[in-house]
Structures are given as structure tokens and as C-alpha cells.
Amino acid sequence: MTTTRGRRNPAKTTSHTAVRKSRSSLLADFPVRTAFVVAGVIGLAALGIALLGPRRFRDEIVRPIGALAYEPLAAAVAPQADRAWAETRAWRDRVGRILESINTAEVRDQVASRLSDWIERFRA
Description:
Helix content is 87%, strand content 0%. It is mostly helical.
């Protein structure tokens, strides 16, 4: 006796494949390759620290890489920073004079009295 298989409901088949496609699209959208690369780099760094020791790893690997990355950046930014510092000299002097004029005993007493009035208002 052979049994005949019933036909699948087309609605169930399409909904089942839709669920399957959505799961696979989630995995396809997630950057799995990037996650593997990050995990690999972290693992290699941990292995390097374990084999070389933290001080030697820092001195022989981290500092040279930092120097290679920092020096060109500093060379490119330094002239612009010096120019910006020179251009803001007048503004910095003016702000300094304003702050000096505010920093007097009379102003400090006024600020203290206003603060105490404000605190008293909230206590009542």
C-alpha cells in the first residue's frame, strides 16, 4: 500500500519561505566578515601580549605604530593650530580682561548673596 502525500498548502509554503528568507537576510545584512576580522585582531593582540609580555608588546608594537600614525598628523595640524592661536589672540586677551574685572571681592559678595537668597527661597 502506498500512501499518497497530500499537497502542501501554498499559503503555508510561502509564509515558511518568507520566514526563512527573513532570517537569512538578517545574517546577510549583518557584517559577519567584519565581526570575524575584529575577533581575529583581538585574538592576535592577546596572543602577542601573552607571548611577548605587556611591556615588550607596548614598546615594540604599540609605540612604533602610534608614532607612525601621530607624527604625520601632528605635522599637518601644527601650522594650522599655530595660525588659529595667533588669530584668536585679541579675543583671548579681551576675555581675560573681562574675567579679571569680574573676579573682584564686590562681585564675589554679590554672587554669594544672590546664591544665599536663592537657597533661602527654596528652603521656605
